[in-house]
UniProtKB/TrEMBL annotation:
Taxonomic lineage from the root: Bacteria, Bacillati, Actinomycetota, Actinomycetes, Kitasatosporales
Top-level taxon of the source organism: Bacteria
InterPro entries xrefs: CdaR-like_regulators (IPR051448), CdaR_GGDEF (IPR041522), PucR_C-HTH_dom (IPR025736), PucR_C-HTH_sf (IPR042070)
The name this protein goes by in its record: PucR family transcriptional regulator
Chain ranges of the CdaR GGDEF-like domain: 175-281
PANTHER family per the UniProt record, alphabetical: CARBOHYDRATE DIACID REGULATOR (PTHR33744), DNA-BINDING TRANSCRIPTIONAL ACTIVATOR ADER (PTHR33744:SF1)
Similarity comment: family membership: Belongs to the CdaR family.
Segments forming domain PucR C-terminal helix-turn-helix: 330-375
Amino acid sequence: MRRGAEIALTPSPEWLAELDAATLAGEARRQMAADPVLAAGTRRTNRSNLLFWAASNVRAPGEPVPANDTEAPLAVARDMIRRGLDESALDAYRVGESVAVRMWTQIACTLTDDPEELRELLDVSLRSIAAFVDDTVDAISARMRAERDELTRGTHAQRRETVALLIEGAPITRQRAESRLGYRLEATHTAAIVWTDSPDADPGQLDRAADALAEAAGQLRPLSVIASAATRWLWVHGRPDADRTRAALEHLPDVRAAVGSTAPGVDGFRRSHLDALTTQQMLTRLTSPSRLAFHHEVELVALLTADPERADRFVTRTLGALETAPPEITETLRVFIEEQCNATRAAARLFTHRNTLLRRLTRADQLLPRPLARNPIEVGTALKVLQWRGPR
C-alpha cells in the first residue's frame, strides 16, 4: 500500500492529462470547462486530491484518509457558487474518482504477483478512495452552502444579480438597474474581464488592475463585480487607452485582462461583456502568453480558432516552413501585410532598416508553400493566429 502510494505521488503527465480531460468533459461540466479560472481551479483540485490521498497513505497505509478541505478545493467551491453553479457541479469529483481508480488498479497490479494479496490490496484501497471522495464532496458541499448564504447578503449580491439580469436580457428597467448598480447605462460602455491564473496571486492586484482600466478610460472607478476569487467583471464609460492599459499591467505581473467592444446603452453593456468573455476564452483556448487583448484585435482569430485543431491545420497548411521560422521573420511579414505591403511604413513601424526588412521578406517568401503575392489574405490570417497562439 505504501509503495503504491509513493508511485501515485509522482503521476505521469499522461495520467494527469487524462484526469483533467475527464473531469472537464461532458455537457454537465461545459460551463466549468469554458471558464478559464474554473478550469484551472479544477485542474489544481485534481492534483490536490490525488496527492492528498497518496501522501496520507504513505504516512499511514490503509488508515482512513480525512476529507481534503485544503485551499485548492475550497477556492473552487467559492468560484462555482459565484458563477451560479450548485452542488451538481461536484459530479466532476465522481468522474475523477473513476479515472483515479483505474490508474490505481494499474499501479496495484505491478506491486504483487500473489492474487490473494492483490485482492486484499484492492479491497482496502478502493474502499479508502471511495470514502475519501465521499467525505471530500460532503465537505465541499458544506462550504458551497455557506458561500451561497454569504453571497445572498449585501450589496455585492445585489450587483451580481442585477448584472446577471442585464446580461441575460431579463425584464429589468434601466432606472432600477442604474439605482442598484450606481452606474449609468445610457452611456457608452467598454467591459473587461480581469483575472489571474496564479493560485498565489495577491487579490489586490485585480482591484488595482480594475482601477487602472478605469483611469485609462478617463474614469475615476469602474463598475466592478466579483465573479470569483480570481476574477473581476468590469465596465467603464468610454474606451480605455490601449497604451496606458498595457503600461499599467506591466506593474501587475499576475494579472491578465480581456477587453470587450465599445457600444452604447444596455445592449452595449451586454454585448461588450460577451465580447470580453469571447476574448478571454480565446486566450485560454490558444494557451496564449499575452496578458492583455482587446476584442477588436482578436475578433477574427477568435472566430477562426473556435475549433483549435482545424485552426492549427489551417496555419500549417498556409504557412508551411514559415510556421516555425524565427519570430523576427514572421513578425516582419505580418506587419508588412498589415501595412498593405508598404515596405517603408512596415520598416518604420518595426524600427528596422528597409534593407533588413526586404531581406526578411525574401526569406519568408522562400519558406511559404505558395508565394505571398498569390495568397496574401490567407497568409495574413494565419500569421494573426500565430501571433496570439501559445508555443507548440
